[in-house]
Amino acid sequence: MKAIIAEKPSVAREIATLLGATEKRDGYLIGNGYEVTWALGHLVGLAMPEDYGVSGFQREALPILPNPFLLTVRKIKKDKSYVPDNGALKQLNIIEQVIGRCDSIIVATDAGREGELIFRYIYEYLKCRKPFERLWISSLTEKAIKQGFDNLKAGSDFDGLYRAGQGRSKADWLVGINASQALSISAGRGVYSLGRVQTPTLALICKRYLENKDFAVKKYFQIQLEHRKEFTDFKSLSKTKWDDRKLADDTLKSIQRNGTATVTAMETKTVTEQPPLLFDLTGLQKEANKRASYTAEETLNIAQSLYEKKFITYPRTGSKYIPEDMWSEIPALVRNLEARASCKKAVGKVKWGRFNKRIVNDVKVTDHHGLLITEKIPSELTAHENVIYDMIAHRLLEALSSACTKEITDIGLQAFHYDFTLKGCKIIEAGWRGIKGKFTDEDSDPVQELPELKVGDELKIKVASVLEKKTKPPVLYTEAGLLSAMENAGKEIDNEDERKALKDIGIGTPATRASIIETLFKRDYIRREKKSLIPTHKGLQVYGAVKDKKIADVAMTAEWEMALQKIENNDANADAFHRDMETYATFITRELLDTGIAHEKQPELTCPKCKSRQLLVWNKVVKCPDEACNWLQFRTVCGVPLSVADIENLVTKGKTNLIKGMKSNSGNKFNAYIVMNDKAETSFEFENRKPKRK
In this protein, which residues make up the domain named Topo IA-type catalytic (predicted)? Predict the structure, then answer.
């Protein structure tokens, strides 16, 4: 009898059906010589400080450096403490019984670093010594699963992957536990969370936000000329930028009197744009955020659903390539798309027999190849699944197409001794851009078509006008922008040698970046404002405390990612990495224990309900310390954070100033005052609106 351990019940059922293990039992399936069971994510993890006898936050106990680390069943928060998750305990007991009855194990958890860690921690916790093999597949189609079982790999082949996962797990524990406790202790009140990747990511958001906020916007003026030749309208723009509107207006009058512009320079060059590669997970998340405003986590969840329904390959991939032996399967995938209405037109533009092989590269395929559709034709997809599926399908068609060739023309004009410029574009070969029919990127300047022009041509000026413009601050991060910054963190490093060494290294991995961003939301460190990511007051407090500390150092975090990759490839020693992390955790703990958090000056406010105790003003709530009274006011109301001044007005005057931009349950925005009655109960008072005139 063989035991098979999958990561989720749905995957276990697929495998069991294929193997003929169709008899259902509590927590597993049995039949045909197999018992198929499943984990429920991370059933086992690293023990918490209290498991080592360290309860609460104690300055003298830091840094906590477990030796050895203990494993424990997953815990959940209950009241103010953590207790074992009963569901996890039950399933772990079932896995232990299944393994006990079997001679060997086939590991079928997700084929990646975290999937490997999920199984190995269970295996280690149960003190199991039975031999195991690895099922390594990139899709859940029947064909892929069969091929995987025909080519089971030795479990030891993935020891490097496990050591990398274990190293990441322990590093996150050492940094997260020690740094969070140290900052919380030094702050004096409140609990602050720091993390190995979480904190550098917060630093990226806060730094960009402050650069944007502190940017001094300046007005400037340019002159635009409109021309027409050979039935083609086009525009040119002055090279000169005026700070003074009057000077720009005076120049405009002179140009209008002159009435013509002369072509003084002309340069034409041919530009070749190679097609994009396949999506990796981060690329898909960026595209989905730009095109459909999906969050990184939403995109991952939709892609995971498509994967489990067998419509796409494994989504948590960091590669944009496929291996040579998969190339022969590509034509059939493209042919399948002809049956899909949303893709049929695009498939018609693909040049059969002339597929571009840029995506084929054995060396650049990591654990998994780039994201692909499978041979299974989609049916009954949700609206969101349709969007993501079509993105992956169209990207495949683009990747297989030829390069787009453009003729770009830069032209210089002169009008009344002032230089003007314009740029034209002519598509020579549409190539991959013809798949969607978009010939420029959305974030690039539009390029106009031009008539035939040559140096010396006189162009009449149809219209001349002064454009008022403003200098633009650094743009706030969207999730797409933040994912790019995380992916390319190494390129942003100031030190040139470090930048060269880390240019292809990011912070986090494609599989974890969405959860890192979501953690910042859960910690109340950032919030969304339309599509932009904005730090909260608490987030800025933390950034102010750690921005010059090692824990916020993007370069160091990128170096760790590189070290973990080397461990995975058996090119670096996991024990040496762990010792380095212990040294680092010790350093940042001492550094943070000497760091304070700048707090708002808290007013002394008497509880409006019991009239006797002084209120406690915390980041998330304002409350009376008397449990018999238990008056409480949340600091965030309908999505809008309340300032200390708002709280002070509410408690002392019974009414806040007008709070703008609150959001109702139905998603509609509204403005209102928060008011308090004699019983210290709060409600909304809506602003008086003047009746509209008919």
Answer: 158-589
The full length of the chain comes to: 694
Parallel/antiparallel/unpaired status of strands 81-84 and 75-78: antiparallel
300 and 372 part of one domain: yes
The β-bridge relationship of strands 153-154 and 81-84 is: unpaired
In a domain, 691, yes or no: no
Same domain, 26 and 92: yes
Q: pLDDT of 211-247, one tens digit each?
A: 999 999 999 999 999 999 988 999 999 999 999 999 9
Q: How many domains does the chain have?
A: 5
- Does one domain contain both 15 and 52? yes
**C-alpha distances in Å from residue 135, one per residue of 108, 127, 138:** 5, 22, 10
Q: Could you please report the per-residue DSSP string of 338-371?
A: GGSHHHHHHHTTS-TT----TTB-STT--SS---
d(CA 176, CA 48): 11
- Asked, for residue 548, whether it belongs to a domain, the answer is yes
Dump pLDDT digits (tens) for 51-77: 999 988 899 999 999 999 999 999 988
Strands 682-686, 75-78: pairing kind: unpaired
Residues 147 and 257 in one domain: no
| Nearest CA among 595, 268, 273, 631 for reference residue 429 | 273
**Nearest-angstrom CA–CA distance, 289 and 297:** 10
Q: Smallest Cα–Cα separation from 168: which of 107, 118, 106?
A: 118
Separation CA 523–CA 519 (nearest Å)? 6
Q: Residue 621 is part of which domain span?
A: 616-686
Name residues of the chain where pLDDT drops below 70: 439, 441-446, 490-504, 596, 598-602, 688-694
Q: Quick check: is 372 in a domain?
A: yes
Residue 65 DSSP label:
-
482 in the same domain as 375: no
